[in-house]
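Worked problem 6 (solution included).
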Amino acid sequence: MPIDAAKALAAEPRTGEITWDRRDVQLYHLGIGAGVPATDPDELRYTLESRLHVLPSFATVAGSGSPGVISGLSMPGVDVDLARVLHGGQRLEIHRPLPVTGRATATGRIAAVYDKGKAAVLVMRTEVADEDGPLWTNDAQIFVKGEGGWGGDRGPSARLEPPAGEPDKVVERTVREDQALLYRLSGDYNPLHADPEFAKLAGYDRPILHGLCTYGITLKAVVDTLLDGDVSRVRVYATRFAGVVFPGETLRIRMWRGEGAVRVAVSAVQRADAPVLADTLVEHS
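Solution. The predicted structure is:
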């Protein structure tokens, strides 16, 4: 079996320095669809250096995501085929607002390995801190198809009870045809999102959008719609990737207000509201 759970969990964490600046932040924001309309004051907060603030989901790509999900797949005890890898879920905890320019230490390790029967799930944890203390903790749940079945712990369920009643807000966001090509410039160069031949090997008729691009698009919609555009209010942002998005599609984002939290569901309009993000929660102040 290419995944040795005990060896992966016992491996020494990987630590490295990451840096980012306003250009990285602006590029990320453009990669998730910010800047439309280009002169809208609300959009200039994401694109114009003199007004710039940082959407918390930028943490998933800061410093090109180093140590990162892809490098994590080469940790001791892990040797898998990238074409069999799916991003199953993401949880981001923000300890304080992200600065526009930063230098920090990122420590990455495999925090858990679960046996889901037909797949293995790796939880890759990255903890980031600068000289002033912790900035964020990022957990990526990575499904590796065909690598389960060794009798290990199945792990906790990520499923939440469906939100009650009609959503408080519904917005739609169109994904550009070149959105994946732009987003990948923030550091995720998995060919699944650009190379038609590689996408076919992975079982898709064309390249798909990065799940973390959908993740960013969705958080921006929540912040802009229900959090008064205030990125500093986000505390935790978690989701389960329930389906793929193809560039050119339209996302329907449904939001339910709660006490200190927003529940969210995202679907693809053109495919009869096929689920894209599920069990999605934004905790906020």
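Discussion: The chain is about 20% helix and 35% strand.
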